[in-house]
């Protein structure tokens, strides 16, 4: 039975759930009796970045996507937050759906969030698939560049930044027009708190040994946002890592731009470790 916040649209369930005074949007696809997989998107992205990936596994899994604070249908939030807050949002989503444990797929920022969820409640994370992410923090020049991004966005909006951002966050040879259109819909203050969460995150590297669930790491060979070396270091630091998958000639969002090289290894991993 649908609750008051749920609506059906094109055969998909599109509800919201509330945590910490924030209303967060999510969507389910697939059979609820199958093993659950929760997908967490990257910075300046939303749940739709996983559409093609979900198509390849939806027959075997209960697929759940959600829009994190500041993005998509969740939208702008009126208070600061950290990625630990977002990890608790993810765990609250599992509570809301009465899911005891799930596999987590996280891309970039979504990886930051998924790893923190695994540290907070390890028994609830069956497996981790991490895409274009890292355990460490950014160097001071990178943090400064994000501070400049925040100031420029507030002053002029996303339009002057769109070409550089799409190349950095998605890839040089990908049509990012739909994402640029989504950015235009954000307010000029809309990325303030998301940028603060990104630049203010803590270093998880000393805690990687506590993430003992099976894990797999994907990384594009031409990632400008997070160098592939960080992905390799992450895979080496996870005690139960099952592989490091290089996506040749892909940028920061290989699951979006090169799904044909991500979907097979991802499906095989999930089938093996979430049954």
Automatic annotation (TrEMBL):
<feature type="domain" description="AB hydrolase-1">
    <location>
        <begin position="35"/>
        <end position="259"/>
    </location>
</feature>
<dbReference type="InterPro" id="IPR029058">
    <property type="entry name" value="AB_hydrolase_fold"/>
</dbReference>
<protein>
    <submittedName>
        <fullName>Alpha/beta fold hydrolase</fullName>
    </submittedName>
</protein>
<dbReference type="GO" id="GO:0016787">
    <property type="term" value="F:hydrolase activity"/>
</dbReference>
<keyword id="KW-0378">Hydrolase</keyword>
<dbReference type="InterPro" id="IPR050471">
    <property type="entry name" value="AB_hydrolase"/>
</dbReference>
<dbReference type="Pfam" id="PF00561">
    <property type="entry name" value="Abhydrolase_1"/>
</dbReference>
<dbReference type="InterPro" id="IPR000073">
    <property type="entry name" value="AB_hydrolase_1"/>
</dbReference>
